[in-house]
Amino acid sequence: AGDFAKVDTYRLELSVRKIEVKGDQATADVVYDNYFRVMTPAGGIPKRESDLHRMWFRRVDKRWFILSGL
Fold first, then answer.
1. Largest CA distance in the chain
2. Count of CB atoms within 10 A of residue 50's CB?
3. In contact, 10 and 35? CB cutoff 8 Å
4. pLDDT per residue as tens digits for the range 17-37
5. Which helix (H) or strand (E) segment is 12 a member of?
6. Is the pLDDT of residue 63 over 90?
């Protein structure tokens, strides 16, 4: 919690790159970009982190549920 308190600005962008549906199962490839600024005694330091995640879904009746990922 101490490091998070030093974050001054935060922005998260999510992009869906690919979706595959097979019956009641599906996967989605999601890219996230984090942009944030950490405050230090010398001032704010901008940071950026990006990563690709695969999410798994299952359809129950007519609704989709996240099984895992992200």
1. 55
2. 10
3. yes
4. 999 999 999 999 999 999 988
5. strand 7-22
6. yes
Measured from the Cβ of residue 55, the count of other Cβ atoms closer than 10 Å reads: 16
Check: CB of residue 30 under 8 Å from CB of residue 14: yes
Which 3 state secondary structure label does DSSP give 51? strand
- Quote the CA–CA distance of 54 and 69 in Å, as a whole number: 6
| Residue 66, C-beta contacts closer than 8 angstroms, at least 6 positions apart | 55, 56, 57
Q: How many residues does the chain have?
A: 70
Q: Judging by DSSP bridges, how do beta strands 25-40 and 7-22 pair with one another?
A: antiparallel
Which tokens in the block code for residue 47? 């940071």
CA separation for the pair 11, 39 (Å, rounded)? 15
Looking at this protein, which amino acid is placed at residue 10?
Y
- pTM of this prediction exceeds 0.85: no
Tokens of 56: 């798994």
